[in-house]
Design goal:
By secondary structure, the protein is mostly helical. It has 9 helices and no strands. Keywords: Sigma factor, Transcription, Transcription regulation.
Length: 190
């Protein structure tokens, strides 16, 4: 008897013409070919969008690598109709995590970056301070629905349509919740 009684599903055949959903299904079945195609298709635009958020090329490279590792590990859990939005969500969260990890060495630790350190962009500084400042506390006091919309549209930089697809709610609901969240944040921070 085999040590593991279950069988892994065979990876479907994929080509460069396969759609993203088929590629993710193949990645879930452990197809390295599908992962390579997905990477070739999406890494360039992910890099470009992440570069608008961060001036540190090394942080972007780390975030991209971690993104595709996460895709490899969690492709079987993908349940959606927007693979590009799913990839972007993973990428931006990996970038924020990387920046927080780097910032945590500087914020409050007494260790200052030296002259050879990369200069953080204004957006990097803002993203790092969100968690630790008054804004982070105010965000934590929002209801989960409002916080999810603000995180998707403001912190992750998604459009209303992308956020609606990601959160599984209508675009109008995203707009309404964003308006309510901004009003509550203004009250909290004033």
């Amino acid at each position: 008897m085999r040590p593991f009684p279950f069988r892994r599903r065979a990876a479907p055949d994929v080509t460069a013409e396969s759609n993203d959903a088929d590629l993710i299904t193949a990645v879930a079945a452990r197809s390295t070919v599908a992962l390579r195609i997905l990477h070739q298709r999406h890494a360039p635009w992910l890099r470009a969008r992440l570069a608008r958020r961060c001036a540190d090329a090394d942080a972007i490279d780390d975030a991209l690598q971690e993104t595709f590792l996460a895709v490899w590990r969690s492709a079987g859990g993908f349940r959606g109709d927007n693979p590009a939005g799913w990839l972007w969500t993973i990428a931006v969260r990996r970038l924020i995590s990387a920046l927080r990890g780097r910032g945590a060495r500087w914020v409050g630790s007494g260790i200052e970056p030296n002259d050879s350190s990369p200069v953080a962009s204004a957006e990097d500084v803002v993203l790092l301070s969100v968690e630790h400042g008054d804004l982070g506390a105010a965000l934590n006091r929002l209801s989960p629905e409002l916080r999810a919309v603000i995180e998707a549209t403001v912190l992750d930089g998604l459009t209303t349509k992308e956020a609606a697809g990601l959160l599984g709610i209508p675009e109008g609901t995203v707009k309404t919740r964003a308006m309510r969240a901004r009003a509550r944040l203004r009250e909290e921070l004033s």
